[in-house]
Amino acid sequence: DAKTTQPPSMDCAEGRAANLPCNHSTISGNEYVYWYRQIHSQGPQYIIHGLKNNETNEMASLIITEDRKSSTLILPHATLRDTAVYYCIVRVGGSARQLTFGSGTQLTVLP
Amino acid sequence: DAGITQSPRHKVTETGTPVTLRCHQTENHRYMYWYRQDPGHGLRLIHYSYGVKDTDKGEVSDGYSVSRSKTEDFLLTLESATSSQTSVYFCAISELSSGPNTDTQYFGPGTRLTVL
């Protein structure tokens, strides 16, 4: 799995968009970008994933650069309940094996 | 949210006693996983299953065994618990598909185990 780099922490005002960056410069052509988050003491929660096109679901949007070396997770209207550690994971799709979580980004949504 | 439950949610036990944690799913997913999470180590895979009675070791399998006698249940057993096995244990499930949800893992709420 390709290595990812995320800032250790970020703050965001409640109601504003939260933009979480991730660098994955060694990503291979068959590797997907996954995003999970973990709210304190809870199980990791799947957010979104993509291969090369931008993706959107009810939780977030994922923007992947054209060269696929970086991506941004966007929470359009952050709430206090979005305070969590966000993990960017790059891995081959369809592999049914271990997810490797790095250090992630601690997002704190401020009132 | 995926239908995954874990039991018990909290357990305190003594060194040397056997402990079994249960993961139950209602999604009929083929793959099930057991992870442990410790400060400074992130999530580490203990064992996983790719079908009924089909299991394999993960990164930190020593001291743990698993069983899967039916699709919906995956049991993790600590034959003789040690203090180093104090951790939070998460179960996850996934299903392979050719569509956009390929291999997404969904996690349960976790079991907090303390071994005294």
Walk across the major sheet of chain A and give the strand order: 1-9-8-3-4
Tell the overall outline of chain A: globular
Which oligomeric form is depicted?
heterodimer
Q: What is the helix tally of chain B?
A: 0
Q: What's the Cα radius of gyration of chain A?
A: 13 Å
- The SS-based structural class of chain B is mainly beta
How widely separated are the two ends of chain B? 34 Å
State the low-pLDDT regions of chain A, or none: none
The main β sheet of chain A shows up as:
5 strands, mixed
Biggest sheet descriptor of chain B: 7 strands, mixed
The parts of chain B where pLDDT drops under 50 for at least 5 residues are none
Total strand segments of chain A = 9
Number of helices of chain A: 0
Q: Considering DSSP H and I runs of 4 or more, what fraction of the residues of chain B is helical?
A: under 10%
Query: How much of the sequence of chain B is in beta strands?
Result: over 45%
Which range best describes the helical content of chain A: under 10%, 10-25%, 25-40%, 40-55%, 55-70% or over 70%?
Answer: under 10%
Order of helical and strand elements of chain A: EEEEEEEEE
Task: Classify the secondary structure makeup of chain A into a structural class.
Answer: mainly beta
The two chains with the largest interface, and their residue counts, are: A-B, 20 and 24 residues
Which SSEs are present, and which pair or pack?
The complex is a heterodimer of chains A (111) and B (116).
Chain A: E1 9-13, E2 18-23, E3 31-38, E4 45-50, E5 55-56, E6 61-64, E7 70-75, E8 84-92, E9 105-110
Parallel strand pairs in A: 1-9
Antiparallel strand pairs in A: 2-7, 3-4, 3-8, 5-6, 6-7, 8-9
Chain B: E1 4-7, E2 10-13, E3 19-25, E4 31-38, E5 42-51, E6 54-57, E7 64-70, E8 73-78, E9 87-94, E10 106-107, E11 111-115
Parallel strand pairs in B: 2-11
Antiparallel strand pairs in B: 1-3, 3-8, 4-5, 4-9, 5-6, 7-8, 9-10, 9-11
